[in-house]
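A reminder from the course coordinator: this example appears on the midterm review sheet, so study it carefully.

Given structure:
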């Protein structure tokens, strides 16, 4: 008698709140992501989305910035205030650099421009799933008088303190992971967003690195804490 062995693939379902005013976009993305273990639920209105987030357990939010009832940027700020560790992906046709940087500064983890490939959304979700939450990241670093506190997003040096945005904090954590060695652009984008960088990602890294440098300059204007390595990336100099 032939013996038959059955193998079952098991995975944990991840719940995603999709905040989008076009229901056909939600249905299409929901069908695509379901076989990968992502269950999407729909909200077309910002205030309703906040209620759903407060009463149900979601691991991710996918948000369109163009919502009729409420600004998507305002919604990012409110979601981040109420749910500090919730992963937020923006999918929007507003892809100018100012909007992208603003969304990331307010607390978005990812930004995807429309039109988009659903496989990219799936890859971004997978990358965020692998990224540690704030509680698992080392809370405090102190090197040569420079102190970085991840929990409060503060950077201190010689009795001066500055506050970092969410993206600046993540970027500094990436630099610290490689300290004192230099780190290239591809590694930075991979650790920030779970993928190898392309043009828009590299431009966003440059903008955010400039802002992080400005924060360091507020602490010590005469010292260069972040060095640009020609054709390579960046090096933290503490």
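Designed residues:
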């Amino acid at each position: 008698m032939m013996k038959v062995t059955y193998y079952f693939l098991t995975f944990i379902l991840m719940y995603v709140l999709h905040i989008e005013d076009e229901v056909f976009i939600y249905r299409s993305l929901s069908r695509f992501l379901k076989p990968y273990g992502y269950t999407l639920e729909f909200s077309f209105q910002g205030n309703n989305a906040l209620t759903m987030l407060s009463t149900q357990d979601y691991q991710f939010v996918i948000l369109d910035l163009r919502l009729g009832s409420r600004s998507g940027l305002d919604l990012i700020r409110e979601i981040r205030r109420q749910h500090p560790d919730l992963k937020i992906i923006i999918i929007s046709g507003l892809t100018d650099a100012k909007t992208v940087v603003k969304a990331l500064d307010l607390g978005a983890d990812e930004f995807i421009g429309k039109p988009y490939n659903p496989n990219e959304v799936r890859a971004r979700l997978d990358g965020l799933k692998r990224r540690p939450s704030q509680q698992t990241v080392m809370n405090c670093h102190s090197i040569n008088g420079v102190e970085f506190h991840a929990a409060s997003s503060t950077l201190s040096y010689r009795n001066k303190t500055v506050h970092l945005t969410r993206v600046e904090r993540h970027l500094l954590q990436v630099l610290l992971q490689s300290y004192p060695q230099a780190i290239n652009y591809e590694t930075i984008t991979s650790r920030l967003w779970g993928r190898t960088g392309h043009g828009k990602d590299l431009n966003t890294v440059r903008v955010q690195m400039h802002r992080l440098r400005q924060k360091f300059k507020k602490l010590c204007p005469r010292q260069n804490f972040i060095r640009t390595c020609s054709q390579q990336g960046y090096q933290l100099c503490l």
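The chain has two domains: 14-130, 136-236. Residues 5-10 have pLDDT under 50 and may be disordered.
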